[in-house]
TrEMBL record:
It comes from the Bacteria. The lineage of its organism: Bacteria, Pseudomonadati, Pseudomonadota, Alphaproteobacteria, Acetobacterales. This is DUF768 domain-containing protein. It comes from Acidomonas methanolica NBRC 104435.
Amino acid sequence: MSTEDIEEWLDTWVEDHLAHGAHDLDAAVALCLKEAEAIGLSAEALIRAARGDLAAFLAEEGEAIRQAGV
């Protein structure tokens, strides 16, 4: 997968999993990594797509989506 594909997958994952309310961040990170691995994405590639910090990325993006009302 290209970097662009990984970023798109991650954005979609956030929309699908975090847009509808607060979630346990540790559980969200673990689930995201597990689902990425299931489709062949490495943790390293996913973390790169998340600008180096998957937990912070998920928290920020999930909050932005909730605030936007998506």
